[in-house]
Write a structure and sequence with these properties.
This protein has 13 helices and 13 strands. With 385 residues, it is α/β, with parallel strands linked by helices. Strand 2 (75-79), helix 4 and strand 3 (96-100) form a beta-alpha-beta unit. It is globular and about 70 Å long. Residues 56-58, 82-83, 85-86, 128, 154, 156-157, 178, 180, 191 line the site of pyridoxal-5'-phosphate.
Length: 385
């Protein structure tokens, strides 16, 4: 039995290790020069005016909604096929997340569903760039512009990604990235909010560190002073310099890591795209994919096993997989709070039942990729109806 191939593994080299060690030896562990340098480099990489480093994408989404002044009476449109974070941040304000369905072909938020879900209370839309491919942003931005709402992109999967020649992070009003251990740039825990608005950037930076008026982190430096003023009840969401040290090296390696994931995706597509027992997600010529996830959809009519059994068999063959996502409207909290049934958002529910995410990360070897392909094909061969 070969070693278990995990679903995800961060790609950490000796350079990350050296930078973390240098940070530990520098005597400055929390928010400081490395965090500021990571923000500046990140902003440049995605073409944003401002970048605010925080300790998660969830924190970035929360701060974004705080900066735009979300109130309990507001509604925020969110795709149901996403992680917990995208909608829970709306609930932090007592506001209503209005869950909408996704497209069957690429699993992205459905712009026509966004339009149907719109109401006089709609304050913002949080589209998710599912799997690392940008959603169709143009109609959503246009709707929001026309009707005076804000677009906050959940780009947890989409670093680096492009939509119509523009880099994700430079398009919507605020864009939120994740550096969670499994994401395409990993700092263990971490996140970033980018925006063209200086006002929102300043507000998010201040609220990320207790609502203290100015450069709170500098109070322990030679430039700083013991005196500070609390101007709002903020949060504790600041990024540490230890995480930023990882982030700076990972950012330098971002394109090389993407190139490797793209190779893996190409091999998977060659192996599976003509297979009648599987379906792959549509890709679009006007977008560059970050390849954070590689999802395959089982055609149950061609198979004698269901998705859950498929996952078990792959696990027995030493391959870790995952499912993205259990739609939010199928979870007990959202079902009971908003009286939702699985069939209320039928596309996402059906996709959920057929989807499996295969391992795709730059630390995979060619032999790892071959193993995944062989295990998937053998499992399908044994399960033809
Ligand atoms: C991972 C993820 C998040 C949350 O990221 P954290 O950095 O863990 O807070 C948000 N949205 C989506 C779609 C994600 O996959």
């Amino acid at each position: 039995m070969p070693e278990f191939l995990p679903f995800a593994r961060p790609d950490i080299t000796s350079r990350e290790v050296e930078e973390v060690v240098a940070t530990l030896e520098s005597g400055w562990l929390t928010t400081g020069p490395r965090t500021r340098s990571f923000e500046a480099t990140f902003a440049k990489r995605v073409g944003a005016q401002h970048a605010v480093a925080v300790n998660s994408c969830t924190a970035a989404l929360h701060l974004a909604l705080e900066a735009i002044g979300l109130t309990p009476d507001d509604e925020v449109i969110v795709p149901t096929l996403t992680f917990a974070a995208t909608a829970e941040v709306v609930r932090y304000f007592g506001a209503r997340p209005v869950l909408v369905d996704v497209r069957d072909d690429d699993h992205q938020i459905d712009a026509s569903a966004v339009e149907r879900a719109w109401s006089a209370k709609t304050k913002a839309v949080i589209p998710v760039h599912f799997a690392g491919q940008a959603c169709d942003l143009a109609p959503i931005l246009e709707l929001a512009r026309d009707r005076g709402a804000i677009v906050i992109e959940d780009a947890a999967h989409a670093l680096p990604a492009r939509y119509r020649e523009r880099t994700i992070g430079s398009i919507g009003d605020i864009t939120c990235f994740s550096f969670y251990a499994t994401k395409t740039l990993a700092t263990g825990e971490g996140g970033m909010a980018t925006t063209a608005s200086e006002e929102w950037a300043d507000r998010m930076r201040m609220m990320a560190l207790h609502g203290i008026s100015k450069d709170a982190w500098k109070r322990y430096t030679a430039e700083g002073s013991w005196y500070y003023e609390i101007v709002a009840p903020g949060y504790k969401y600041n990024m540490t310099d230890v995480a930023a040290a990882l982030g700076l090296v990972q950012l330098e390696r971002l394109d090389a890591m993407l190139a490797r994931r793209t190779e893996i995706a190409t091999r998977y597509r060659q192996a599976f795209s003509d297979d009648e027992r599987l379906e792959l997600l549509a890709t679009h010529d006007d977008r560059d994919h970050a390849w954070h996830l590689f999802v395959v959809k089982l055609k149950h009519e061609a198979l004698s096993i269901d998705r859950n059994r498929f996952i078990e068999i792959l696990k027995e063959r030493g391959i870790g997989t995952s499912v993205h996502f259990i739609p939010l409207h199928c979870h007990p909290y959202y079902r009971s709070t908003y009286q939702l049934q699985p069939d209320d958002l039928p596309v996402a529910h059906a996709l959920y039942q057929r989807s499996v995410s295969l391992p795709i990360y730059s630390a995979m070897s060619d032999a790892d990729v071959d193993r995944v392909i062989a295990a998937v094909l053998e499992t399908l061969d044994e399960s033809v109806r």
